[in-house]
């Protein structure tokens, strides 16, 4: 079977197994490291409140996580969303390219008040902008804000606890 023997005629199979085992361990370590580097856009969660409604929001606070957002996601639980936190307030724009979920977006001022809410269609490149300078944006399943009676001027509590990475 092509098994190697050392100068004393002892089978070197165990050294070979050890060698392959070591390679496998290093391979798994590199694979795990690669998977950690490709972690999803979302990271930590934050509990937000708008009136009596509680939202479990995934946080997108880095440039990479904000760019990826909910792209390629096929499901978002009924009371879940994604909170985008930016380093400075501005009139940010969002589109739905590569996003299969129909979503609503609320642009939120630094004080937590909702500036405006837009409905977004999946897989479109139409850009939806904040009507004023926003520090946050909250994406929820399409129609969520309307069903809950939430409108511009309402306050989102808990956003001030989220800080964007520069």
Automatic annotation (TrEMBL):
List the InterPro entries hit by this protein, alphabetically.
Answer: DUF192, Saro_0823-like_sf
Highest taxon above the source species:
Bacteria
Q: Which organism is it from?
A: Ferrigenium kumadai
Protein name stated in the entry: DUF192 domain-containing protein
């Amino acid at each position: 079977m092509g098994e190697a023997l050392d100068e004393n005629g002892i089978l070197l199979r165990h050294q070979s197994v050890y060698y392959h085992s070591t390679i496998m361990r290093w391979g798994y370590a590199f694979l795990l490291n690669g998977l950690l580097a490709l972690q999803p856009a979302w990271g930590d969660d934050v509990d937000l409140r708008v009136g009596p409604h509680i939202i479990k929001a995934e946080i997108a606070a880095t440039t990479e996580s904000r760019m990826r957002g909910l792209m390629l996601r096929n499901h978002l639980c009924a009371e879940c969303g994604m909170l985008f936190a930016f380093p400075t307030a501005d009139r940010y724009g969002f589109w739905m390219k590569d996003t299969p979920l129909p979503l609503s977006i609320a642009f939120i001022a630094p004080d937590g008040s909702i500036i405006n809410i837009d409905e977004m269609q999946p897989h479109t490149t139409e850009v939806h902008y904040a009507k004023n300078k926003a520090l946050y944006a909250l994406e929820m399943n399409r129609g969520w804000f309307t069903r809950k009676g939430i409108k511009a001027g309402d306050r989102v509590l808990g956003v001030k606890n989220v800080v964007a990475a520069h």
